[in-house]
Design brief:
Helices cover 26% and strands 26% of the residues. With 333 residues, it is of the alpha/beta class. It folds into 2 domains: 179 residues, Alpha-Beta Complex (Quinone Oxidoreductase, Chain A, domain 1), CATH 3.90.180.10; 135 residues, 3-Layer(aba) Sandwich (Rossmann fold). Strands 3, 4, 5, 6, 7, 13 and 14 form a 7-stranded mixed β-sheet that branches. The chain has a 5-stranded parallel β-sheet with strand order 10-9-8-11-12. Helix 4 packs across helix 5. Bound molecules: NADP nicotinamide-adenine-dinucleotide phosphate. The site of NADP nicotinamide-adenine-dinucleotide phosphate has 34 residues, from helix 1, helix 4, helix 5 and strand 9. NADP nicotinamide-adenine-dinucleotide phosphate (NAP) binds next to helix 1, helix 4, helix 5 and strand 9.
């Protein structure tokens, strides 16, 4: 563990825009508030949520994130590293603890602040890169499947699960979790990712560049859509009589942006009695500890698109912004 410094290297932006708005900067090391831990970051991982914050889109996000420029300048939230200082009210963590979770000050930096109840311990057998890669995406996969009736520990034998975006961050974890629960899993991705998705455990793969998802039989118990390229009504038509669709946003898509999609899904659920389920995944120490256990025992293993150094943070973000990363983009610090 290094001695805490007063300044740090970070990747930050002062204007909303594409990845070229992000640049290496030197910033003061943030000071922990009463319930914060200060973590010396070893690895960070990126998500579409970081792209939304980078672009300031959907624009409604700017109400919380800064109307004309980002108030938190450092992007990234998933991180893993070592606690170097704790706030006055923190009792559970101390300097030297290896933790992973959600940084509230941005994770593309040498140091990051996290609330004490949004981190969990990294098991000895798990690398910081794998831990960081599993924060938001693995939790969302777990929470989405749970919303569709496949909670951790559930027996999904006999259920048919369709994962759209199976080679993405969430999809790659969802394939593994649904398979572990005993489900029959079909993954949707492009042909270049078909082998990777099969290696995650998928029983079948649909190459969306050659076949239309809408030609599949109407027998799915769960359709976990992480892309949004197919209108949700068309996905609903592919469900079994009790099956449900998880319209999990998407960077853009046929049903509008992520917030509009959630509103539409819930409106149709109540007005048209469609079987849509939306969910909002939030990290907690308990949920992250569950993910840590699954990483340690081999139930989960992140699919990693690329591992890049902090200085190439902008390039890392543009890989995620493309919408075609194969699994997680990890940044080592
Ligand atoms: N509800 C929540 O709490 C929650 C939490 C976190 C994230 N999210 C949302 O979940 C969504 C997915 O996140 P993610 O991290 O999984 O995204 P991601 O990793 O960026 O997804 C990229 C993957 O999508 C695949 N893809 C692109 N177009 C496709 C298509 N038409 N059909 C099938 N696959 C396609 C790509 O494969 P190819 O290169 O082969 O095309 C790529 O591997 C995002 O919109 C995010 O905002 C929701």
């Amino acid at each position: 563990m290094k001695t805490a410094m007063s300044t740090m290297n970070a990747i930050a932006h002062d204007r909303y825009g594409e990845a070229d708005a992000l640049a290496p900067v030197t910033l003061p090391v943030p000071s922990p508030g009463p319930r914060d831990v200060l973590v010396e970051v070893e690895a960070a991982a990126l998500n579409p949520a970081d792209v939304f914050k980078m672009r300031g889109q959907p624009r409604v996000l700017r109400l919380a994130g800064g109307l004309t420029r980002p108030t938190v300048r450092v992007r990234g939230s998933d991180m893993a590293g070592t606690v170097v200082a704790v706030g006055a009210e923190v009792t559970h963590w101390r300097a030297g603890d290896r933790v992973f979770g959600e940084a509230r000050s941005g994770s593309l930096a040498e140091y990051a602040l996290a609330r004490d109840d949004r981190v969990a311990r990294i098991p000895d057998a798990v690398t910081p890169a794998d831990a960081a890669a599993s924060v938001m995406a693995a939790l969302a996969a777990r929470d989405g499947l749970a919303a569709a009736g496949i909670a951790p520990g559930a027996d999904a034998t006999g259920k048919r699960v369709l994962v759209i975006g199976a080679s993405g961050g969430i999809g790659s974890f969802a394939v593994q979790l649904a398979k572990h629960a005993g489900a029959h899993v079909t993954g949707v991705c492009s042909g270049r990712n078909a082998d990777a998705v099969r290696a995650l455990g998928a029983d079948g793969v649909v190459d969306y560049t050659r076949e239309s998802v809408t030609d599949l039989p109407a027998w799915f118990d769960v359709i976990f859509d992480n892309v949004g390229a197919v209108p949700m009504e068309e996905l609903h038509a592919l469900t079994s009589p009790t099956g449900m669709v998880l319209p999990n946003s998407g960077l853009a898509g046929a049903d509008g942006g992520p917030l509009m999609k959630v509103l539409r899904a819930n409106a149709r659920r109540f007005l048209l009695r469609r079987r849509y389920r939306t969910f909002l995944s939030m990290p907690s120490t308990a949920a992250l500890a569950e993910i840590a256990g699954a990483l340690a025992d081999g139930t989960l293993s992140p699919l990693v698109d690329a591992v890049l150094p902090l200085a190439r943070g902008s390039e890392a973000m543009s890989r995620v912004a493309s919408g075609h990363a194969r699994g997680k983009v990890v940044v080592v610090v």
